[in-house]
Every structure is written in C-alpha cells, then in structure tokens.
Design a protein that fits this description.
The protein has eight helices and ten strands. The protein is of the alpha/beta class and 278 residues long. Bound molecules: S-adenosylmethionine.
C-alpha cells in the first residue's frame, strides 16, 4: 500500500489517516471535494505574471486527510469573490498577520504556537503544504492559523479590507534568479503599494531571503517606497529576529553557503511622508 497520492489524475484522498485508496477520478470530479480548489480564482482573475510556479504535487495520505477534515473550517480559496470577515473567520478580534508562501508550514506553526494572541493568515498555492500546515495546527491544538489557497495578490486586491492587517511576512520568496524572470519576483513597488493599502500604520513587513541580489532589490524598493520606513536606524538589513524560526527553504540555502538577510520595514502613518499620498 502506498502512503502517498501521487498524481492529480489518479489520486483520491485517503478515507482514514494512513490509508490511501487509488482509483481514477471521473472527469471533472474535484480532487478534494471539501478541500482547496485546483484553480480558485479561475480565468476571471488570471494574472499574466505569477510569482509562483505551478508544481505537480504529491499529497501524502496524512495531508489528504487533514485537507478533507480541516479545510471546511480552517481553509479558504482565494477566488476573489468576497471580502473576508477576519474577526468571524478567526472567532476573535486579535491582530492578523498575513504570511505569503509558507511552503510546508513548519515555521508558521511554530510562530503560531509561540504567539497565540496573534492570528496567522497563511497562504500558498502548494496543496501538500496546505495539508501539512493544517495537520500541524491540528496536532498542536492551534486555533490561530487559517490557510488560504491561491495567489496572495488576489487576496490582497479583492478580499482584504484597507488597514485589515497588522503585519506581513514573506520568507524566502521564490528568488527567480534569471534576469528574464525578475518580473516574477514578488517584492516590487507595485506589490508594496498594494500591501501598504491593507496594512495598518505601524504594521511591519518582514521579508527574508538567501538570494543576495534579491535582498538588495528588496532593500532598494522598500527604502524607496513612501509608505514604509526601515526599522533599522542604519538603513540596512536586520539579523534574524528571535521570533522567526529557521525555515525549510532557508536550511537548504544555508547548506549551499548562502547568506541570509532579513528586512523589517514599518508601515508609516497615513499621509506622513510629506509630498506623497501614502
Ligand atoms: C521558495 S518557497 C519558500 C517557502 C517557505 N517560506 C520556506 O522558507 O521554506 C516560496 C513559496 O511561496 C509560494 N508563493 C509564491 N508566490 C505566491 C503567491 N503569489 N501567492 C501565494 N503563494 C506564493 C510558493 O508556492 C512557495 O511555496
């Protein structure tokens, strides 16, 4: 018996943890009937340039089980169809921090456990990671994690209210090292302007990367953006703060000898920078 569900074409989620059933799905039958949709925003919100690469995904039986059981209460599709009521979704008015691209979610779960008074809205397009994070939240009894499936740009643009976020975390975004792919990098002026419109004054944008040219780009665009100011008096990179655990992707970079840089920038009060409507 296989412990994984290997391809979207032949996969069917396990009915109980540890058990996997292989059968061919009927045409049009969803992969996870009560779980994340394959293409939540559909063509209506198609973005030509995406910061992520669609990946074939192997979902383990445990991840499939977590998706089936927990998605209806703790997951949401980023389909651009409605404004999220964050207080209703989390069941309280605690501050909400958005994490874009949580990968497999180990760092997210650790941060949620360490800070139960902060709600974490964690989004990614990667189905196994969504299942993994839901499973971790369940095992650890975390009630402050919700998982979004889809493109974070559509979430920010269509589904979040102005001033609704108390922080934004982007840890080890895809580096897109080739010059022709630089336009796919997430941290750019246009993205920061969109994020600024959803972040409360005082909220911190926290980025980290092990790709030094991208770190330089992040520092440049964040420093130049009128809605943000560096929390570092010297205007440079920050050391990894104690609250950010080492992530999976970071570990791979460190093994290759990469240098990791963190950046922490604060959303300035509305209209504070003279001459700039921010
Ligand atoms: C290089 S991985 C890093 C994962 C994790 N933060 C870590 O450090 O291990 C980047 C992740 O960002 C996700 N991602 C990239 N662009 C995204 C977007 N626009 N919306 C949601 N997730 C995105 C990718 O699917 C991928 O899982």
């Amino acid at each position: 018996m296989s412990d994984s569900v290997s391809t979207p074409e032949t996969a069917h989620p396990a009915s109980t943890p540890g058990e996997s059933i292989r059968r061919t799905r009927a045409k049009g039958e969803p992969r996870f009937p009560d779980g994340p949709k394959a293409d939540p925003a559909g063509s209506h919100f198609e973005r030509r340039i995406r910061s992520f690469q669609p990946r074939r995904s192997r979902v383990t039986a445990g991840q499939a089980d977590a998706l089936q059981r927990l998605w209806p209460a703790w997951g949401f599709d980023i389909d651009g169809s409605r404004r999220l009521d964050l207080a209703a979704f989390f069941g309280n008015d605690n501050p909400v921090v958005l994490e874009i691209g949580f990968g497999m979610g180990e760092a997210t779960a650790a941060m949620a456990a360490a800070d139960p008074g902060t709600n974490l809205l964690a989004v990614d397009v990667h189905t196994p990671g969504q299942g993994h994070l839901l499973g971790l939240a369940d095992q650890r009894g975390l009630s402050n994690v919700r998982v979004g499936n889809g493109d974070a740009i559509i979430l920010l643009r269509e589904m979040l209210a102005p001033d609704s976020l108390d922080g934004l975390r982007v840890y080890f975004p895809d580096p897109w090292p080739k010059k022709r792919h630089h336009k796919r990098r997430l941290i750019q002026e246009e993205f920061l302007t969109l994020a600024a419109a959803r972040l409360r004054p005082g909220a911190v944008v926290h980025c980290a990367t092990d790709w030094e040219p991208y770190a330089e780009q992040m520092l440049e665009v964040l420093t130049a953006h009128p809605a943000f100011e560096n929390t570092r008096a010297d205007g440079g990179f920050a050391p990894r703060p104690a609250f950010r655990p080492r992530t999976r992707f970071e570990g791979q970079g460190l093994e290759k000898g990469h240098v990791v840089n963190d950046l922490l920038f604060r959303r300035v009060p509305h209209g504070e920078r003279a001459g700039h409507p921010v």
